[in-house]
Each structure stands twice: as C-alpha cells, then as structure tokens.
Design brief:
The protein is an alpha/beta fold. The chain has two domains: about 100 residues, 2-Layer Sandwich (Nucleotidyltransferase, domain 5), CATH 3.30.420.10; about 60 residues, no CATH class. The chain is about 40% helix and about 15% strand. It has eight helices and five strands. The chain has a five-stranded mixed beta sheet with strand order 3-2-1-4-5. The protein binds magnesium ion (MG).
Length: about 190
C-alpha cells in the first residue's frame, strides 16, 4: 500500500484565518519535516491557544523556515512526497483541508485531482475497527490515549505531542499495529 503518514501544525482551527506552519511527511520509512515562514498578517491572526499547544514560540524557526509564505514551498515538496499516495494520519481531514487550500491558492483547482490519492485514512477509525474485531467496544467520544493503550502502541511523549513529526510517527505506529493483524490480502480469492 502506497501511503504517506502526515501531520501539520497550524496557527489555529479556522481554515479561513489560520495556516499551516509545520509539516511532517513520512514516506517509505524516511521522515521529512519542515516549517513554512509566516507573514506578519498570519502571525497576528494566530490563535494564542493553538500557539501555546504547539509550543510555537520555542519551536518556530523564522530564520530557517521555508520562505515561501503560505505556499507549498520547497519545490512543492508535499506534492512530490505524496504523489499518488494515500494520506494517513490522525483525523487527516483536518490536515488535508488545509493543504488543499494551499494547493488551490497556488495552482488553482486541479481538474485532474490533487497529487495525493483522494482516499485518505484516519488511523483512529482504523484503530476502532481493529479493536472491535478483538472484542473491544469503543464508545464515543474516545481518547487517543485509550486507543493507543489497547493497541499496545506507546502514546506520543508530552515533548513530541502536537509536533508535526511526533504526531505523524504516532499515526504510523497505529497504522502499523493495525496492519500487523492482517494475514492475507483482500484481493486473495481464497
Ligand atoms: Mg499535530
């Protein structure tokens, strides 16, 4: 399965006002993580609660962030890394909506579709299905910690939580734990 484990940190929850500032993509076992340079308006619009949660002040490196503000940046790195792949993350709809907006701002609406595969995978939903198959009933609203514990996947450390790479690694670990339960391919007739 061709997948890309992803996570972004943003300046807030409102896609109309808030933007991505940190991206992590793990493909074929290689971790990629970078930050995008924010302009003054984006910094002013940032939600203080999100800034605190993602430890923006201590982690954002304005001098080394890619300087193409609010674009995909880095040779359209995200598009290259995720070409044809399923995006896999914890609630990746949040991340995908934001990267779509960036993509459209830069390139316009893609008549041939976005570079990544349109079918995105939420590892929390995967985990619930896998746990159900093992007899665990997960009542909403659930905590990510509980899913992690039941799957025997270490939870992200406090230091790494709400960092793009820490969260992408956790999504990968949950995905791997679920896929490790699989025995034969779905296309196997027998
Ligand atoms: Mg995150």
């Amino acid at each position: 399965m061709s997948v890309a484990f992803i996570d972004f940190e943003t300046t807030g929850l409102d896609p109309d006002r808030h933007v991505i500032w940190e991206l992590a993509v793990i493909v074929d076992g290689v971790e990629h993580c970078w930050q995008q340079k924010l302009n003054v308006g984006q910094l002013v619009a940032a939600d203080p609660v999100s800034q605190k949660m993602t430890r923006f002040e201590s982690r954002y490196h304005a001098t080394t962030a890619l300087t193409v503000a609010n674009s995909l940046g880095g040779g359209d790195r995200f598009s290259e890394l995720t070409q044809g792949r399923h995006l896999v993350g914890a609630i990746p709809s949040f991340d995908e909506e934001r990267i779509r907006r960036q993509w459209v701002e830069r390139f316009g609406w893609p008549t041939a579709g976005f570079p990544w595969h349109y079918h995105i995978v939420d590892v929390e939903a995967l985990a619930i299905g896998a746990l159900a198959a093992q007899g665990w009933r997960v009542d909403p609203p659930w905590e990510s910690e509980d899913l992690s514990r039941a799957l025997e996947v270490p939870m992200i450390s406090d230091a790494d939580r709400h960092t793009a790479l820490g969260d992408a690694r956790w999504a990968k670990a949950i995905h791997q734990a679920v896929m490790a339960m699989a025995v034969r391919p779905l296309t196997d007739p027998g």
